[in-house]
Design a protein that fits this description.
The protein is globular. The strands form three sheets. Strands 8-1-9 form a three-stranded parallel β-sheet, covered by helices on one side. A three-stranded parallel β-sheet has the order 2-3-4, with helices on one face. It has a three-stranded parallel β-sheet with strand order 5-6-7. It has 15 helices and nine strands. It has a domain at 2-58 and 168-354: Aldolase class I (TIM Barrel, Alpha-Beta Barrel). The protein is of the alpha/beta class and 369 residues long. The structure holds iron/sulfur cluster. Iron/sulfur cluster binds at residues 65, 67-69, 72, 74-75, 112-113, 144, 189, 192.
């Protein structure tokens, strides 16, 4: 029977074919799909009783962006003097101090595609941050930002990455992937670096052994099969990562929120279905047989759905995200503090464990705030 065969292959962590992957999304009974994904998660994750979480702080480097993605309320155009900002070192300092008081160890630094900021600007920024806070890890920029700043400075993405790492970059977030299908990208973010460029930057990072993560923003104009194509593209890129290198450490799918976006004005609205998110997490776990950590986006789906996904393939609740501006500006208003996220994990039947970006255990000794 086809279902038995596909589930058996998924359980064995086989590399599923495109048709098998489509079947999982389109036809697999949800209860059985979630159970098999849970089984695989328990086999793959070192301690199946544990669900990990993290404390880091978002800081937006700048909101100036020439990309103009139709799902983004956060950016402004160059010369919108009322709105534009570039965060100064003096502004970073109290934010970092506050993060350290709360027990955090990492800055998630993201911004826009600023037309004048090249690799030199980011080198200086990372050097200064590391000078003042050598203990803080910099999880910074996304593949589109790297492609863009390399272009501004007239260097290759490899040269840009090497310089950024030398200046203090510790890992590369998976931002800016959305759906890695050119038809979708051309429609929702036509001025953004292409799918091919996203993949090229990530592959360079993998060759350099720079840890990365991957994401998916779904629920806008993509077809269900394009979601699966996205997952297969991520899996295939990970398969090209040299053995022993970090590659994609985690995969995080999250749902598009339409409030106030240009897509909403064009008639595209977000429709959130908790059970569909459970399916997304479960198929991610089974298709991405070469990525160990699948993270639930509690920020976009809320606590009850995130808890449910811990039983359908997810092993991580992500960060408490001090100061998130991009997704929240499009209608996602969920929040957690350190106590709240640990309580949510316990309520779901797991043991919370604080981790760093590389999923190494950290000791949580409470907030000093
Ligand atoms: S999502 Fe990023 S690249 Fe797109 S407009 Fe917003 S800041 Fe710019």
């Amino acid at each position: 029977m086809r279902a038995d065969e596909i589930f058996a292959r998924a359980r064995d962590r086989a590399t599923l074919t495109r048709e098998e992957a489509y079947w999982l999304w389109e036809e697999a009974p949800l209860e059985r799909l979630a159970a098999v994904a849970d089984e695989v998660r328990r086999a793959v994750v070192p301690d199946p009783k544990v669900v990990t979480w993290q404390i880091d702080r978002n800081v937006n480097i700048t909101n100036v962006c020439i990309s103009g993605c139709k799902f983004c309320n956060f950016h402004c155009k160059p010369h919108e003097v009322e709105r534009e900002f570039i965060t100064s070192i003096e502004e970073y300092r109290p934010k970092i101090e506050r993060m350290l008081e709360l027990g955090g160890d990492q800055l998630l630094l993201q911004g826009g595609l600023h037309p004048r900021l090249g690799v030199e600007f980011y080198e200086e920024l990372f050097r200064e941050l590391k000078h003042f806070y050598p203990q803080v890890r910099l999880h910074a920029l996304g593949a589109p930002e790297v492609a863009h700043l390399a272009k501004v400075s007239g260097v290759t993405t490899r040269q840009a990455l090497e310089r950024l790492v030398a200046a203090g970059l510790d890992s590369l977030p998976g931002a800016g992937a959305e759906i890695l299908v050119e038809r979708v990208r051309k429609s929702i973010s036509p001025a953004k670096p292409s799918v091919e460029q996203w993949l090229e930057v990530m592959h360079e990072a993998h060759l350099m052994n720079l840890p990365t993560s991957a994401t998916m923003m779904y629920g806008h104009i993509e077809t269900p099969r394009e979601r699966i194509d996205h997952l297969l593209t991520i899996r295939d890129l990970q398969a090209r990562c040299p053995e022993g290198n970090w590659g994609f450490v985690a995969f995080i799918p999250w749902i598009f929120r339409s409030t106030g976006t240009r897509l909403e004005r064009e008639g595209v609205e977000s429709h959130f279905s908790p059970l569909e998110y459970v399916r997304v997490i479960a198929v991610s776990r089974l298709i991405l047989n070469n990525i160990r950590n699948i993270q639930s986006s509690w920020l976009t789906v809320g606590k009850p759905t995130a808890q449910l996904t811990l039983h359908s393939g997810s092993n991580d609740m992500g960060s408490i995200m001090i100061e998130e501006n991009v997704v929240s500006s499009a209608g996602a208003h969920n929040s957690f503090d350190a106590e709240g996220i640990q309580k949510a994990i316990r309520e779901a039947g797991f043991e919370p464990r604080l981790r760093d970006q590389l999923y190494r255990e950290r000791v949580y000794s409470g907030s000093k705030a």
